[in-house]
Amino acid sequence: MRRTCRSARRSARRPIHARWAAWLALVLLPAPLVALAQPADWPHPSEIEAPPLRLDPPQPRRAVLSNGLIVHLAEDRTLPLVTGVAYVEAPGLYDPEGLAGLAGFTAALLREGGAGGRSPATIDATLERLAASVEASSSDVLASVSFSSLSDTLEEVMPIWRDVLVAPDFGPERTEVQRRRQLEAIRRVVDDPVQLAVREFQRRVAGDHPAGRYPTEATIQAIDRSDLVAFHEAYYGPSTTVLAVSGDFDTDVMLARLERLFGGWDAAVAAPPALPPYDPAPERRVYLAQKDLQQSILIVGQPAVYAYRGPYTAFTVANDVLGAGGFGSRLFTEIRTRRGLAYATGSQLAQGFEVPGTFLAYAFTRADATAEVLALLLGELDRLRDERISQAELDRSVTTLVNRSVFRDASVAAVAQRAARVELLGLPEGYFARHVEAMQALTPGEVQAAARQVVDPESLVILVVGDSEAFDRPLEAFGPVERIEIE
pTM for this one? Predict the structure, then answer.
């Protein structure tokens, strides 16, 4: 007790922290004195006017190496760091029949399986010593191999980056390690109702098209080292690759270094596989993945549009109004805020380049509210088609989307990397500026027309993961139901 009292007395004698003192002084000032702190001629915040925001991001320098490899270079001397990415036209869409997951497996082993005669352990130790990184990944759109390094260790890091991209060893030991990782990831999908719902939804939207394939235990087990080598030889080459390098360097010096590293890369690549037609209008059907859950995962959607073509710009706004706009969107306001029926709800529009992007609306709700929430999702889709959005909704959405576009140019690296992706994807020059200008000129009627063009009630794929015994109404009320065998 005595010790506590002495501690309290010492604490009482300590001076109040300067920040708290300033706060107390402000709070305790008489109101007239506080008012004097703001000049009388200052306008109210709502009356402040500012000129339109103009963005002028630095433009990377485009160059072509002696072997035709395209590079985008952007100097940024603010920090002694350099980053680089090689984007490769080797997407998951190119997975052969029966080997779904090969593109991702190949990309992972570029780095993990050793490269250029260096063992995986040697690469790991070297990058750790240099505080650098080299990573590889693959998606349905492209593959990428990236590096990050201090500017004074580039001579050691960039050759590793080059060899990971150009000369992977696909070491057998790490191949089996990666196989076990992928098999475990596949098994975990079944235990995660959201991942399961997304996988099964995309499979039903794409049908028999390669875009609907997904790796299974059987396809991953079927992949051997010869498949990895063959996929790399088929699709990794200077004609299918674009580089983006940014950071602390002299552009001419970096260009000469890239020529030394990559100029001798003369790999000839195979023609892309011929993709079958993509059905833009699947038959409406309800799919149920039966799982013993207290909540249901609902996804409703269909194939949509190609990125930056046709009604894409107007439908981007429609999607934002519907559910992608967060707290102010229609789905969030109606299903979660007003009715309290969803843990999460919204909508998404995935970009599509070789195949149409996918549009979907979703909600996670109680099992005993499944049918009620599904009816609300479908009702909001009908409303988006049948009624024009208000001018206030349009203005709010366009302002949000335009302001969000500022973050595309958050760094010099982001600008250079986007320039490389744009080139690889074959998008026209100035495409995004035209997209923004078109968005700012939209009318409510044009947004409704886009919604009517994309959202087809007769082609909706409706997928539910949950316990049908707990549903408030049978799913048959929404159409023919097909049960999914979970594997």
Answer: 0.85
